[in-house]
Structures are given as C-alpha cells and as structure tokens.
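Researcher: Next sequence.
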Amino acid sequence: MLNGNHSPKCFDGTFAQATQHCANVGARLCTLTEIEDDCAKGTGCGQDSDQVWTSTVTTYHTDFPTPAPTTLPSKAPTISPTNCPKCHWTELSTSSCSATCGDEGRMTTTRTLTLPEKLNWDEATCGKHSDACAGTNLTNHGTLHDGLLENVHDGLQVAFPGLQEVTSVNCTENITSINCPVDCEMGGWTQWGHPTVHSGTSDWDKPTVDIWGKNLTDTEDSRYGELQMERIWEKVSDEKDGGKPCPNMTARIQTKPWVDHCSQILGEEHSMNCEKECINDKQKCTHTANRCSEKAYSRVKVQYDKYIACNSTSSTV
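Model: Next structure:
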C-alpha cells in the first residue's frame, strides 16, 4: 500500500483488513494497473514476489454447470515446469566426534549452497538471476557476502557459491571401538601376619622402614633384627593400554615389630598367688607373667617368687 508520502507500511491481512488499514493511515490499495506497471516494486517489505491485494474489482466465473471431471487422473506436473535452476543445499556431511573413550565431545554437520551460474541463466524464461534463491532459506546460515560476488539473495541473506551452513552438536564416542587406558585397581590390606617369603624379581623387595619409621636395615639401631609382622596391599587388576600402573611391592608391603603387635592384640597377663602361712611376718608369693617374646612369635611364661609383709593388701592375686 502507499500513503500520501509514498513511504512503505508493511501489513498482512484479508482484503477487508487491508482496505481498512490503508484508510486508517491515509493511504489506499494500489490498482491492478499500478501493480502491473511496477508502481510498488522495491518499496520495502520484500514482497515483490508475493501476491498482494489491489483495489481493482474483477469477477471470475465459469459456465454452469462445469464440465465433468476426467475419468483418469491427469498427468503429474513436471518437477521443474519452467526448467529454471534454483538454489539448493547439498546433503549434510558429518565430521567425526572429537570425544575419546566415552567422554562427551563435539561434531559438526556441514552443507553447502549450490548457486545457478549467471552465464547459463535465461532471463527471458526464468526471470532475473537475482531471484534464483527466492524461496530458499539462507537466513542465519554461513558467513555474510563479501561484496565481490553476484548479488543473489532470498530477500534477507545475500547468497554466493560455497556459502556454508555449519552446525556443532554434542556427541559421545562409542568406547567399544577404542582401546581406552585402564588404570591399575588396588584393593584393601590383608590381615597382619608372619612375613612371607617373596620370590621373584626385586619388585618384591621388602620396605626399609616399618610403619613407625624405624630403619630396618641400620645395624646400629637398637631395634635392628627384631621380629616383624607384615601385611600386603592387594591388587585387583593390572593396568591396560597405557593406564596408571600399580605400585611396586616395596610400596605394597608394611611391617611393624612383633612385640608391638603382640602387645596391641594379645597383651600381657599377670597373676600372683601367695601362701597363707606367715613366717617371720612375711608370706611367700609367686608372680606369673605371660609376656610377648622378642625371640619368637609367641608369649612366654615367666615366674618368680617374692616375700611380702603379712596382712598386706591381698595374700592372693
């Protein structure tokens, strides 16, 4: 529509709505002749290729009754009745997923615009080459036209050969097709026990200090050569395909002195039995102790007699 100043006002609606809208803004619908003379061409809204309302009233009717329909279906229309090439997108191509070993990554899909060449364009049959992409959605795809190539567009986005639409999406690689690194898996510690004879390579070398940090190899240390208890950090599975390796056996063995373990777990037992007879105001008592041995993995029984004053705290302990 045009107003008194011939400035474009865009509006979509029915004929009655369009007529009223024009009147409201001091304008009118163009006549059919004005439209055919390109009066409204290029005035805005990108509707040069759309159907628009005019103020010219025409009457179309058919003779009554209409001819009977054909008994057989008519032939299908040709794919391109005008034989005019159009812009079209190529099939999507998909990149490989950037993820490895099941982690989430990114992948891209790309399609490229195919644009009819201007040298092979028949304007007498197909109209203006600049309308080759009419009806093809180019908006928000690819990069902007650099101004050096031919000006073909869909009404909003300038088109050029090689225009690409690139979309990036999340993806997850199928880990069954990849040898992913697997770290060594360690379990828990065994119970404390007597040291095991470890055969094989130096990987089974025993640690040089116990859990208290006492040096087990220093012959000058007063505790050198003491009996030791041992426990081992168990391994569940080895590493695979470059995963984190398991600790060596030196780091997987812990030791502590037997006497410390015995005192903590078994402890020592003490008892004292005294005779009832009192001689020279004293009575004989026998002291018995079960102590942790420093020479064997056991407790030893130690007894000795001593005399205490009669009528002391207790004659029998």
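Model: The chain has five helices and 14 strands. Confidence is low (pLDDT under 50) at residues 1-7, 140-150, 199-203.
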